[in-house]
Prior knowledge:
With 235 residues, this protein is α+β, with helices and mostly antiparallel strands. Helix content is 21%, strand content 31%. A hairpin with a 2-residue loop joins strand 5 (98-103) and strand 6.
Amino acid sequence: MSESAPLGHPRLHLRSTDSTNERARALALAGAPRGTLVTAAEQTAGRGRQGRRWSAPAGSALLMSLILRNPPPLLPLIAAVAVCDVAGDDARVKWPNDVVFVRGGRLAKLAGILIEGRPQEGWAVVGIGLNVAVRVEELPVELRGTAASLGLSNEEIEPLLARLLAALQRRLGEPPAEVLDAWRARDALCEREISWAGGRGRADGVEGSGRLIVELAGGGHTTLDAGEVHLALGD
């Protein structure tokens, strides 16, 4: 399929599934073309990064997984920026690709992105869960303080999906420098104290391949290319 062909065709929509990413991965392995889309009204075993579970009441979130062939190296950043494009001016990205609102200095997660694939076979699945009509007060207690929602009606999920696919199409066609500039303009961590499994420091943006740059307290810099990053206590 042409790289310029609209994303989202063919489409498999499910009332309920374990994980749209699992369904899309199976389709990719079976040879499904670029642009194949799996959506669901409900996931019973939705996954996020680091093996976390993605939870949202049925019919309240945009749940999608998209197959791409020959994915670009900056795909995680491209996906995050595209979600911000449709989520509004207040949306920010917590490296590498959680989309958040900043509320009183705290980061409230609006969307999660999970990219899986087989680079050696030239394909990737972009999984996105976006809280469109989620009522935060209806989420499990442990999620209420860290979750955000667009606060729209569930009738807005389909129109928002169309806009998101168009945003992804547009961002996929941009030069890497433009993607990086757009990502940096949405960076939720820049100049904030962060910690990770190997230490702590001050986030200083991303370099050309998408790695997080960290200014170390003792001087110098390091870069992170994977793993979990948290705001340091007190920031």
